[in-house]
Design brief:
Elements: H1 15-21, H2 34-37, H3 39-50, E1 55-59, E2 68-74, E3 77-83, E4 89-93, E5 108-109, E6 113-115, E7 122-124, E8 129-131, E9 155-161, E10 164-168, H4 176-186, H5 188-191, H6 193-197, E11 199-201, E12 207-212, H7 216-224, H8 229-232, H9 234-239, E13 245-250, E14 254-259, E15 284-289, E16 293-297, E17 302-311, E18 314-324, H10 334-361, H11 378-390
Antiparallel strand pairs: 1-10, 2-3, 2-5, 3-4, 4-9, 6-7, 7-8, 9-10, 11-18, 12-18, 13-14, 14-15, 15-16, 16-17, 17-18
This protein binds FE2/S2 (inorganic) cluster (FES) and fe (ii) ion.
């Protein structure tokens, strides 16, 4: 079913299309082209998919020390990640309470307070408004009738899990602990507390960013299935074949793929990485946590990837890897960390070609949502239903 773009802004997908998407996989329709090309659709997604739930906006390790701040722009919404004096990560709207200047433009460190570049009002790392120079006239830093206590930074509901910083902008999603519980349970061999504490961000070769010329949903869809493995990732497939993979689902929260035949890919040094106890040697799992996180769990390293939609046809990926104990920063593991990071980056670059190809295909009037394999594309269809049911008119 084709939609005119004008049909979308007024409140989402027509109910008959949603019904078609909700059919059993082999008979289901996919999301229409406009869901991948329309600015209005992306704005609807911002309200109903991203802001309504817990969305990831960063890795906590990118603000490592108290006073570190990092501005984040998520679909035009300026936010600020802050590491406070107690070492906790907080998130605020990145806007000065005075005249609405964007408070912080670049990642930086404020030893004590955050200073607005416009009229130099200052805020504590807890968001409290502390300084209002000359507000009452030259040399008078108070103004009768002005209550500083009422004009601190506006906090955003936030939570940190597996070093990922999540926010709920609508403020009414269920508590984060309840929200994440099904995925925490699935990864319990890893997320039980002492494993967790051993996870450290790699000091070198720990992160990369990639920009895709495709809609964010195409990046997610491609991550969800292993069907493309032999054709897009022949090298990876030689180590962990299509038939060694399985799919899994976690209701409204996640879906993904796993392998029963994980073999470390970091060359001769691979065996030297310390291991996360409690995670089986042979199993690697790649859950996609809706809406914008992709996680890879292996016995010797863990990574997470966050997606930022930039526009209907552009998406940026932020990848961050963690190792156990000193294998995260020991110089003698530097080469192994590099091999591992380059290997993963190459896999995502291989994916880029098909994501961008699918985006170009979304301009074809001959494509109307496509069809799904009832076996191999089930996680993709699961995600289409997740999107469609939230964007139903
Ligand atoms: S806008 Fe920030 S101090 Fe005036
Ligand atoms: Fe892939």
């Amino acid at each position: 079913m084709a939609l005119s773009p004008a049909a979308l802004p007024s409140g989402g997908l027509p109910s008959e299309l949603v019904e078609h998407i909700n059919r059993p996989t082999i008979r289901a329709a996919g999301l229409p082209n406009e869901a991948y090309t329309s600015e209005a659709f992306l704005m609807l997604e911002r309200e109903r998919l991203f802001n309504a739930t817990w969305t990831c906006i960063g890795h906590a390790c990118t603000v490592p020390a108290p006073g570190d701040v990092r501005p984040v722009d998520f679909l035009g919404q300026p936010m600020l990640m802050v590491r406070d004096r107690d070492g906790e990560v907080r998130v605020f709207h990145n806007v000065c309470s005075h005249r609405g200047n964007q408070l912080v433009r670049e990642p930086c460190r404020f030893p004590a307070r955050i200073r607005c570049p416009y009229h130099a009002w200052t805020y504590g790392l807890d968001g409290r408004l502390e300084g209002t120079p000359h507000i009452g006239g030259p040399g008078r830093h108070e103004n009768e009738g002005f209550d500083r206590g009422a004009h601190g930074l506006k906090a955003i509901r936030a939570a940190v899990w597996m070093d990922l910083v999540f926010v709920n902008l609508s403020g009414d999603a269920p508590p984060f602990e309840r929200h994440i519980e099904p995925l925490a349970n699935r990864l319990h061999g890893f997320t039980d507390s002492d494993q967790y504490e051993r996870m450290r961000p790699a000091a070198t070769h720990g992160r990369f960013e990639l920009e895709f010329g495709g809609n964010w949903k195409l990046v997610i869809e491609n991550n969800l299935e292993s069907y493309h493995l032999p054709f897009v990732h022949p090298e990876l497939n030689a180590r962990s074949r299509l038939e060694d993979h399985y799919h899994f689902y976690g209701g409204d929260l996640f879906a993904g793929q796993g392998s029963n035949l994980y073999q470390p890919g970091a060359g001769d040094n691979a065996a030297a990485f310390h291991r996360f106890e409690g995670w089986p040697d042979r199993i690697s799992e790649y859950p996609t946590l809706f809406p914008n996180v992709f996680i890879g769990v292996h016995y010797d390293h863990v990574w997470s990837l966050m997606l930022f939609p930039l526009s209907p046809d552009r998406t940026r990926e932020y990848w961050q890897v963690y190792y156990v104990g000193d294998t995260a920063d020991d110089p003698s593991h530097d080469a192994a960390r590099e091999t591992s990071m380059v290997g993963w980056r190459n896999i995502f670059i291989e994916d880029m070609g098909v994501v961008e190809g699918m985006q170009r295909g979304r301009s074809s009037p001959a494509f109307r949502g496509g069809v799904f394999s009832g076996v191999m594309d089930e996680p993709t269809h699961h995600f289409h239903k997740w999107v469609a049911n939230r964007l139903a008119r």
